[in-house]
Amino acid sequence: MNNRTDIQAAVEARLAKRYRAEGRFRMFGILAIMAAISVLILLIGSIASQSIPAFRVNELTLPVTLEAARVDPAGDGSEASLRRGSYNSLLQEALRAEFPEIEDRGQLRELFGLYTPLNSARLQNQVLANPGLVGQTIDFTFPISDDADLYLQGLTTASSEAAPGLVATPSGTSGEVRVFANSNVFSPIVADIRERLATQAEELEDRARRYENRAASAAGEEARISLTREAEQARTQSASLRSLAEPGSLSVDMSPELPSRLIRMNGGIVHIDRISDSGRTAEGRVLVALDNTEAGDDWTIWTLDTPQAERRITDAQIAWAETLRERGRVETGFNTYLFTNADSREPELAGVLGAVIGSALTMLVTMFLAVPIGVATAVYLEEFAPKNRLTGFIEVNINNLAAVPSIVFGLLGLAVFISLFGLPRSAPLVGGMVLALMTLPTVIISSRAALKAVPPSIREAALGVGASRLQTVVHHVLPLAAPGILTGSIIGLAQAMGETAPLLMIGMVAFVADAPSLSVGGLTEPATVMPVQIFLWSDGAERAFEPRTAAAILVLLALMIVFNAVAVFLRRRFERRW
Amino acid sequence: MADSGTRSSTVYHDAAKTLQGKITLDGVNVYYGPKQAIHDVSMVIPDRSVTAFIGPSGCGKSTILRTINRMNETIDIARTEGSIRIDGDEVNSKAVDPVILRARVGMVFQKPNPFPNSIYDNVAYGPRIHGLASGKRDLDAIVETSLKKAGLWDEVADRLDQPGTGLSGGQQQRLVIARAIAVSPEVILMDEPCSALDPIATAKIEELIDELRENYCIVIVTHSMAQAARVSQMTAFFHMGDLVEYGPTEDIFTNPHEPRTQDYITGRFG
Amino acid sequence: MPINALILLMMLVLISAAFYVGRSRALRSSGRGSVSLHSLPNYHGYFVALWTGVPALLLMAAMAVFGPSISESVIEMRLNQAAAPLAADLDAQLAGDSLIQSAQRTLDSSADVNAATQARAAIQSRRTAIADSIADTARESGASGLALAGFEYANLPPERRGLFINDARALAFNGQPSEITPAIEATASAFRPVDRIVRFGGAVLAILLAMAGLAWSRSRVKAGFRARNRVEAAFMGFLMFCSGIAILTTIGIVASLLFESLRFFEAINWRLDQFLFGTQWSPQTAIRAEQVGQTGAFGAVPLFAGTFMITIIAILVAGPIGLFAAIYLSEYAGKRTRKIVKPVMEILAGIPTVVYGFFALLTVGPAIRAAAQFVGFESAVTQSALSAGLVMGVMIIPFVSSLSDDVINAVPQTLRDGAYAMGATKSETVKQVILPAALPGIVGAFLLAVSRAVGETMIVVMAAGQGANLTANPLESVTTITVQIVMLLTGDQEFDSAKTLSAFALGLVLFIFTLALNVIALRVVQRYREKYE
């Protein structure tokens, strides 16, 4: 193929195909980048959206009478006496005063489930701080329980209210009551329940049939008998469900596995337990007392879609929380507890302050160890070390340490610092030491790069006027390399701040309810740090810990962004090029 | 063709007219960002001969060479204006595909740059991507002819499957030349092809260039005036982005018209 | 703490005083001006300050570390001393007790296992009874609390003595003891004065040492004294010591892992083959000797398999994405795109791994489970190898991309030019010239990424589950080496059990594996760099 026009033709013939391949290849590159960036956006976005409920909190404000006899049992106003006061009973009474109609002990326990008794410690602290309050009535504000909070934020169940617009009459204002309507307004509920019952019955029949089939083909006598028995049981159950579902029985029971229905009328709330088959009468328990027993058409049926068995808050608690909100006793506000409290078993009181202080203490230890040692090592290796086997070995060592998994540093800390040296577990001191060892290679490597960037002419100039080598380094080279060293150190520390695994090894996973003191003494107190707090919360059983975990992540990310922004600023501000 | 537009720094020479013109540069300006590297160069480069570009470092001789196959485009900030035609086909236009252009114009670089593949794959690279061989046998033939033309066949015939990077510098450069001629280009651009080689290897390459002249239009950038004198028929002297003087090599070296050329050739600067 | 703070303050005062002493003496000894001094007066000051401060501060540091154990051994001595008469009494009574003698005879003569066990129990209970009666008598006769405490301490089984001392220490210094008994209270009150003496002694010693250093070094300061060289030598010594810390760290890692691993291997009777090739992992060992069944199985293959699977998934995600991103950024993207996209991708590397773990647990895991169930895998779980692997892959994208970017950029421009000049398109240049040339470097980058993935902990702890399943199904939960290390070492643990020690053996495997990968990767990359330098 030597003819030039032939070649031209051949090249052109393939060109379109080649450019298609080119386009595909380019597209893969773009897709790869888009994939990486969209995962990043998804990650940040999902965490940010999960965190939203954590920043809001529903707080109860109740008038609490600080009776002297109960707050100050010794009557001398001393701290010891005030500490022995029974504050929780005061809170219980304050809440009970809102719902005087509740008599039943079980119901009272349910009512007191609307807040955690840990709040009494907060009330106590308030009194201790201001003993003059004894004997007065104060408005005490405290967070409602996490489950109620989630409900009030609309995250537990969908709920709807429908007004039938027909006249109905309650039989009483409290206790067990009946509500008579003059037409079959409750029939849709009955139909709905029947439908569900029928479905359940069908499922049971299906199961019975499966058992029968298996029994027919079963090998052993014993197996066949037991399978047959199972089948019979399922059939019996199904039959009883069917009889319940059958129209004609006198009434239909509500069960916790079904959506809950409540009636709001005459300023009160009734929980429906049973509905007559006619659909005219509903029986149930009064949760919030009715004002009177007058007949009227101004009432509603309130449906909570998620069955009570599938949520952690009961129908009664929902009714009370809703009533407290209607009475203005519950208000939604910014969740300051998240930032002013340390960890707590109760999500509504849990905060990140303890972990932030723990992180600060740990980082201080890390900084005071890793930065001087790292810079000294870098200076020695870069400026003074003879090029021999030993320094070569140190260099290889540092490079390899940089790639050792962080958890191995944790094992080192556990075996050496805790077991061998006997330093305290869970302490920021040990955490800081472990993280310092982990951060050291980063600091050394970046410091060496910064020192390398200082041109040799500077050193020659200093040596030329008679400075010693140490003077040259301290007076001239280090100041010029400082911005680079600082930037590298900050980035290393930011990495250490996000590290979790090695700290688990040295016991910083302990539950720490008090923030450690921000002092030298705090270094040996048990503490936790932000990433470990996130790990602990992500494991929390209560659903309300989920948004709080996300919120803690945002706090951690914000801290890291600040760190990195400082590094970027320093680099921009002091960057020097030769 | 040659008489189209005679501009200020244009230096046509009659010799170029006697030989058949192959490449015509017309009012070429090249910019690197805001900086202008080439000022208004116009010239006609003859076919089947060697044209040498000489001049001090940074005079733009490599830049002008790289406009011919539009290699400047690989540098983000470079921009070329003016008309460059090969056999009358405009090259410097968006409508022209550089891929097709570069199949017509081969290039050899300062440092030998064989691909990290075998010798065979290096030579076969161009025919393969452009689809010039209809089969394995065809490709074998192309590789063999190209290596023979580059004078390398005898040295590597028994080790075609070994990496091209294992050859000596001079062999590598000849391998690269073989790679370039494997697609039967019309023009071969050489950017200081011998600057990284020892004198013996240089002599071999120069010999090769002289042989290749029979069939190709060769443009060579060189630092060495001796080399320009040895291998080229036409010589162009560049200074500070200007084409100072262009003419038959003999004239430039024996009887330069411009004082700057004279100074350079006699070694007063550069 | 206040004592320490006070001492520290005094030290600071002494050190600054030493500086001025050295400086002014140097100035005086030079007579007029500082002309005849070898070193600047300040260096003489530094010299004296160093001699004052460094030995004393080192002593203080040593006291801070070893002080508690010194006071503990003193306390132990005093406990034994105080309890000596009671202990002697006990020994005498034990020796003369007929019940014990007869039980001992049975124990010596009987070959029957049951009889021996019974005899041993009899001796034990008799011994306890005698010890109790001695303690009661002593208490009635008004023996000191310390003597009783010492007696109780001496009769404790060895493994509980440490706890006893810890409780006493905690009680004495505002800590939280696990229990408070009269004996612990008595020990605690003995603790305080001993500790005070140790502390004060240490402080006084430190101050004396500082003063001695000051006096001696001051006497050395003369006009011709080469103070600067001494100070610089000291400084150089400090620099060298700091460089040594990197080595010390490595030695510490290797030594602690090896030492604890050896103890583990001893505990499993050196059945290394069972550890490395056994397929059953259930490290729960019996808590009491007579418990049956739970003997613990330490076959680490399920862990290796889980680690392997998650790493493979992660590399399958990060490899192509990272590599293509690197290619696009270095060969296609304009300057501005690069300037924006690169830092954005680096953010992925800066996000703490615990955040990835949360993301995997709450977003990716449920999504994968839902998708799998939709397709028909009813048994899919939230904590699966797939979700952990995918998220870990995202985490290591920046490693792959920035390392690949480096090696791609190290491919010389002349190679690109060569290809373009042949009329190759960009993708042809990349595929046929740049990638083959950069291959060793890219392999190195992948190896580093693998090492990173193998050692990653939090994502797998949170998202991969804990069951030691040996499975090839990525939708099931698996466990990894790192997960098991965390599981074994968090929560309740007794430090010497095989279960706890096995964590160190796993750590050793992890360390060796990642180290090997890293050494190979660095070497490959280095070779590659040298080729194009």
**How does the major sheet of chain A shape up?**
8 strands, antiparallel
Helix content of chain C: over 70%
Give the quaternary arrangement of the chains: heterotrimer
Protein structure class of chain A: alpha+beta
Strand count, sense and barrel status of the largest sheet of chain C are: 2 strands, antiparallel
Total DSSP helices of chain C: 18
Mean pLDDT figure of chain C: 84
Question: Top keywords for this entry?
Answer:
heterotrimer; A: 578 residues; alpha+beta; 4 domains; 3-stranded antiparallel sheet; extended; C: 533 residues; mainly alpha; MetI-like fold; 2 domains; two-stranded antiparallel ribbon; 18 helices; 2 strands; 79% helix; 1% strand
Describe the model.
The complex is a heterotrimer of chains A (578), B (270) and C (533). By secondary structure, chain A is of the alpha+beta class. Chain A folds into 4 domains: 4-51; 54-152, no CATH class; 159-310, no CATH class; 349-574, MetI-like (MetI-like fold), CATH 1.10.3720.10. Chain A has helices at residues 4-51, 68-71, 79-83, 87-98, 105-112, 119-129, 146-152, 187-217, 221-245, 315-326, 337-340, 353-384, 389-401, 406-420, 428-453, 456-464, 469-497, 501-505, 530-538, 545-574, and strands spanning 56-65, 137-143, 159-162, 168-170, 176-181, 251-253, 260-265, 268-276, 281-288, 300-304, 330-334. In chain A, strands 3, 4, 5, 6, 7, 8, 9 and 10 form an 8-stranded antiparallel β-sheet that branches. In chain A, helix 1 crosses helix 20, helix 14 (406-420) packs across helix 15 and helix 17 packs antiparallel against helix 20 (545-574). Chain A is extended and about 110 Å long. In chain A, 42% of the residues are buried. Chain B is an alpha/beta fold and 270 residues long. Chain B has 11 helices and 10 strands. Chain B has a 6-stranded mixed β-sheet with strand order 6-7-8-3-9-10, with helices on both faces. In chain B, helix 4 (119-130) packs parallel to helix 7 (169-181). The model of chain B is unreliable at 1-11 (pLDDT under 50). Chain C folds into 2 domains: 2-223, no CATH class; 303-532, MetI-like (MetI-like fold). Chain C has a two-stranded antiparallel ribbon. Chains in contact: A-B, A-C, B-C. Chains B and C meet through helix 3, helix 4 and helix 7 of B and helix 14 and helix 15 of C.
